[in-house]
């Protein structure tokens, strides 16, 4: 089984049926930037920024955790969303060239949970994957696409109505996103987003973090609407059909 982090777009397509629509095809330009500071995020990041070096993935996850906590704990999500960490899952398919498979263990799968102590629901019920990194390379978008495509494939095989999947790849400073639409087309935004000043030891302001916070919030909203816990999915279909390019 080929790891998510060591695959190619060709292998992703053979294994999951998802195809690369193109770089920069997902328009996130209409995302509304949140102007009111999130004090929870700012205070946590500034405390970390003074004493927590960005030398390891474990340390960087503390910064990533701060972003996820500040978004997932917003009242609009009714405290229904949970993070499920480091859960291994795989997908496979038989092609003309033989059996193809991929597997990985994303740092975070985000989905619904009844309580903080809820056991992890089946993988295919999740629609958002977050992967943490230390280094950043030109091959990272393949890993980003692989995890999302595997989840899309699992949702399709389980007969889910809404097949849209989102993923974020980040080293806490740089944040990239990926969207797979209902047809299995893999899309990326036109650029990668940056948290200015992270790891510098200086005091961060809301201007340093609001762009990443706003885009992460936008993606979590789309994922939340795509799989509401008790309400029909119909109202979310129009919004998620194109990745939510309209805010």
Describe the protein's architecture and organization.
The chain is an alpha/beta fold. It is globular. The chain contains six helices and eleven strands. It is 34% helix and 21% strand. It starts with a strand and ends in a 7-residue tail after the last helix. Strands 2, 3, 6, 7, 8, 9, 10 and 11 form an eight-stranded mixed beta sheet that branches. The chain has a three-stranded mixed beta sheet with strand order 1-5-4, with helices on one face.
SSE pattern, N- to C-terminal: EHEHHEEEEEHEEEEHH
* Mass-distribution shape: globular
Strand content: 15-25%
Helix-and-strand structural type:
alpha/beta
Counted by DSSP, the helix tally is: 6
C-alpha Rg (nearest Å):
17 Å
Briefly say what this structure is.
By secondary structure, the protein is an alpha/beta fold. Helix content is 34%, strand content 21%.
């Amino acid at each position: 089984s080929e790891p998510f982090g060591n695959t190619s777009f060709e292998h992703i397509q053979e294994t999951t049926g998802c195809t690369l629509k193109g770089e920069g095809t997902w328009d996130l330009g209409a995302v509304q930037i949140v102007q009111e500071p999130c004090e929870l995020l700012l205070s946590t990041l500034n405390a970390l920024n003074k004493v927590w070096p960005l030398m390891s993935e474990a340390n960087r996850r503390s910064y990533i955790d701060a972003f996820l906590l500040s978004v997932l704990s917003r009242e609009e999500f009714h405290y229904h969303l949970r993070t499920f960490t480091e859960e291994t899952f795989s997908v496979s398919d038989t092609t003309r060239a033989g059996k193809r498979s991929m597997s990985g263990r994303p740092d975070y799968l985000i989905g619904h949970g009844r309580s903080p102590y809820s056991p992890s629901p089946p993988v295919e019920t999740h629609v958002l994957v977050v992967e943490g990194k230390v280094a950043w390379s030109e091959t990272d978008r393949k890993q980003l696409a692989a995890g999302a495509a595997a989840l899309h494939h699992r949702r399709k095989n389980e007969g889910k109505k809404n097949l849209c999947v989102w993923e974020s790849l980040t080293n806490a400073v740089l944040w990239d996103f990926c969207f797979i639409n209902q047809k299995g087309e893999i899309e990326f935004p036109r650029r990668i987003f940056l948290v200015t000043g992270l790891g510098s030891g200086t005091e961060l302001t809301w201007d340093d973090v609001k762009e990443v916070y706003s885009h992460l919030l936008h993606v979590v909203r789309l994922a939340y609407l795509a799989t509401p816990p008790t309400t029909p999915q119909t109202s979310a279909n129009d919004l998620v059909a194109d990745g939510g390019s309209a805010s």
